[in-house]
Amino acid sequence: MSATTSPGTDPATAAATSPGRRRGLSGWWFRPVPLARVAVVRTIAYLFVPVDVFLTTAWIRAHADVPPEWYAPLTIGRLLPLPTPTSGVVTAVQWALVAAALVAATGRSPRLLGSAVFLLYLEWMVIGMSYGKVDHDRIGYLVLLAVLPTVGRVRWRDRRSSEAAGWAMAAVFVTVMLTYFLAAWAKIRFGGWDWATGSTLARAIVRRGTVLSDWTLEVPGLLVGAQWAMLALEFTAPLMLLVWSTRARVALVTLLLGFHLAVYASVTIIFLPHCVAVLSILPWERLPEAVRRLRAPTAARHPAGPAPAGAAPPG
């Protein structure tokens, strides 16, 4: 899983022309991906940790003051000898997680620090989700943190392609897809097909609606149609895995992030950790080249160094 291709080699071409290329499902999972993509995604993922700890899940810190008898650990918390959250435990996990993530974002000791970030974030989630509420928007981000250490040391400008990087990004891609598909499955499992004809969206807008969504309550059938559309899109989420070209990936990410922004504009709910996982689908290895192209016209208009002696003035 550590095989790499030469710099500048397109991963799709490398996978197709390699003498020992994998076929079928194995070829999909281990299709080489540029290491630069993992480097950029790693930076984004680790820098998001303090944002999540201090903003999006700041409420977890309040569990330090909750009576220990209220702690009802998730299955993993019962199987592993995890400590009961106390003020000291929660504070230690919080600051150790943030510190490890900030150092890991620099690229130092990627396997050691990356593993520490994953384990500490996992414990942070167990602390947060063991009091009766489990969010489904964090599994993709948690898997992302789990697979990043498996790739090892990478650089933003590393143009080599790697099967290890391909497996890591494929694992996150599949988890992102399953987040949508299993969300639809859960709707039908617990709410039946009546979920699509019920008043789920109407209730959400009544409770959390904005000026951008309140008007939908006055349009008969609109929200029921939106619920059917949501189910259809979530159940067809496996089709995402057929997307491979650069343009298609950008379009897919734009569609997914646009959907989550629309939900936020409508009911002020957004799944930020999941959105970070979605960003891993993008071809980030093209970012340095794009920056270089943007700088090129500027450099042409403002050439470095003095004008040659005797040169005519411009204009």
Please outline what is shown here.
The protein is mainly alpha-helical. Helix content is 61%, strand content 2%.
Structure notes:
The protein has 315 residues and is mostly helical. The chain has one domain. The protein is 61% helix and 2% strand. It contains 14 helices and three strands. It has helices at residues 11-17, 24-29, 35-56, 75-79, 87-104, 110-129, 139-151, 163-191, 194-197, 200-208, 222-235, 246-267, 272-279, 287-301, and strands spanning 4-5, 33-34, 161-162. A three-stranded antiparallel β-sheet has the order 1-3-2. The chain is globular and about 55 Å long. The N and C termini lie far apart (59 Å). The model is unreliable at 6-20 and 311-315 (pLDDT under 50).
What's the arrangement of secondary structure elements?
Blueprint: E1 4-5, H1 11-17, H2 24-29, E2 33-34, H3 35-56, H4 75-79, H5 87-104, H6 110-129, H7 139-151, E3 161-162, H8 163-191, H9 194-197, H10 200-208, H11 222-235, H12 246-267, H13 272-279, H14 287-301
Antiparallel strand pairs: 1-3, 2-3
Helix pairs in contact: 3-5, 3-7, 3-13, 5-6, 6-7, 7-8, 7-13, 8-11
Give a quick set of tags describing it:
three-stranded antiparallel sheet, disordered C terminus, 2% strand, 14 helices, globular, mainly alpha, 61% helix, 315 residues
> Structural class given helices, strands, pairing?
mainly alpha
User: How is the biggest beta sheet arranged?
Assistant: 3 strands, antiparallel
Q: What's the structural domain tally?
A: 1
User: Average pLDDT value?
Assistant: 86
> What is the alpha-carbon Rg in Å?
23 Å
> Which spans have pLDDT < 50 for at least 5 consecutive residues?
6-20, 311-315
Helix content: 55-70%
Molecular shape: globular
**Strand ordering within the main sheet:** 1-3-2
Count of DSSP strands: 3
N- and C-termini, Cα separation: 59 Å
Estimate what percentage of residues fall within beta strands.
under 5%
Instruction: Spell the H/E element sequence.
Output: EHHEHHHHHEHHHHHHH
Number of helices: 14
